[in-house]
Amino acid sequence: MKMENLEDLYLHTLEDARSAEQQMVENLPKMAKAASSDQLRRAFNEHLEETKRQLERLEGLFEELEAEPEGHKCKGMEGIIREGEELLKEKGSDKSTLDAALIAAAQKAEHYEIATYGTARTYAHQLGYDDAAKTLDQILTEEAKTNEKLTKLAESRINEQAAKA
């Protein structure tokens, strides 16, 4: 894809977000299965459903622009997921440490998504796509809330238990 103007960059950013979300749809069930904490497992499963809805909204943005996603693969999310998978392979026997590692991996993904959606929202505003900007802002808010939920889970007991291992 050529990036000759902000419109091109905006489309590229939406494609990046779409690919990142698709990768998370594939990865969240694995993370939920690996979690020992019921709360963490529930958080991953809830975020999976939210992520599917976010993907639907992204598809709607492409339809509004009458643009077809080009099949771009988000290398950033791919790297974050690969790093998390490698961490899980090195896991020890302490379940709370594994849960802490899962939270850290998930938060890296959330932070990446927060940056991507914040950027896309800014481009949408600049281009005059106010409805799209509102949609992106909603997704951005959801991602921030998920990150907050993960932080609370970590701080409420998971990290403390891992520190005692």
Largest sheet: none
Kindly report the name of the CATH homologous superfamily.
Ferritin, core subunit, four-helix bundle
The CATH topology name reads Ferritin
Uncertain runs: none
Number of domains: 1
Q: If classified by CATH, what would the architecture be?
A: Up-down Bundle
- Identify the overall geometry: elongated
User: What is the strand tally?
Assistant: 0
**H/E element sequence:** HHHHH
Structural class category:
mainly alpha
Q: What's the CATH class label?
A: Mainly Alpha
| Average residue pLDDT | 94
Beta-strand content estimate: under 5%
Question: Whole-number radius of gyration?
Answer: 17 Å
Helix amount, in percent?
A: over 70%
Q: Distance between termini? A: 49 Å
Number of helices: 5
What does this structure look like?
The protein is mainly alpha-helical and 165 residues long. It has one domain: Ferritin, core subunit, four-helix bundle (Ferritin). The chain is 85% helix and 0% strand. The chain is built from five helices and no strands.
Question: Secondary-structure blueprint of this entry?
Answer:
Elements (H helix, E strand, L loop, with lengths): L5 H29 L3 H28 L9 H15 L5 H33 L2 H35 L1
Helix pairs in contact: 1-2, 1-3, 1-4, 2-5, 3-4, 4-5
List keywords for this structure.
5 helices, mainly alpha, single chain, 165 residues, Ferritin
Task: Summarize the entry for a quick read.
With 165 residues, the protein is mostly helical. The chain has 5 helices and no strands.
